[in-house]
Design brief:
alpha+beta, 15-stranded mixed β-sheet, 42% strand
Amino acid sequence: MKYNVVHRGDDISIATKDRLHELAATRGLKQDIDQPDLVVSVGGDGTMLHAFHMYKTKLATTSFVGIHTGHLGFYADWKPQEVETLVDCMAAAAALPPLSTVKYPIVQIEIATEQGIRTHLALNEFTLKGADATLVAELHINDERFEMFRGDGICISTPSGSTGYNKSLNGALLHPSLEAIQIAEMASLNNRVYRSLGSSIVLPKHHHCDIYPKKKMNMLLTIDHMNVQMNHIISIRSMVAEQKVSFARFRPFPFWNRVREAFIGEIVE
């Protein structure tokens, strides 16, 4: 098995990375930065987002697994003290392929400007805000006019990203196996001129949402952890991508257990 490690850069993540390389070498695993079968993210969810974007053009052949050295780790199944067990699992999978994985949907964003269309993928979410003023935009769903929005912005998240920014906007938590995207509003203004639904919307695969900004203004786009400022945007289309992201599953770690541990904690009788 060919692998690579992407780490956060703090002391515990660096030490964990070094230990993993040491153990992997003794088990015949080869590091390959360009064409890894497995990418090990050592850090928090931000590290996994960074790893995803490093290898987003190789999603068909590359899987991911996370070692959690941060505060919240929805994408991490392992802790630093379990690195030896993880390497044992990697070596066992290399000896008896194929690798056991789960596949989760991601969101595709197509940004149309006068220069053409730029396509992006996001693992967690895409957000659109006005850089200098409130966002005014018309939303279409499946090519039908749906609403006129005015407010701070719009967040479009994947199911696996529904526990992030989407949750802070009172969006629903979706199981990451569902092939869907969720549209959540940021502080929408509702009056007789601007009317929006006010609650999040979940769109299934093969549906799409088009956002048409109504003013020529500077826009702040965030694609996962990356910020881009643009102007003269004609439209933005969001949909469930044809590609999926694969996570190695060497042991069960149910999504709802992650949610409970992150937001609720131990249940007291």
